[in-house]
Design a protein that fits this description.
single chain; 1 helix; transmembrane helix; 39 residues; mainly alpha
């Protein structure tokens, strides 16, 4: 593996982690809205 391959792998992992965290944050926001009963 070259340094460039490692950087590409890290970038892909960070992208996936960011995508998962963004999705989880949206789900949490939806649950908070349901508890409050406001749209």
């Amino acid at each position: 593996m070259t340094l460039l391959d490692m950087l590409n792998g890290v970038a892909a992992v960070l992208c996936i982690v960011g995508f998962v965290l963004d999705g989880a944050e949206r789900i949490v926001m939806r649950r908070k809205r349901h508890k409050n009963g406001r749209h």
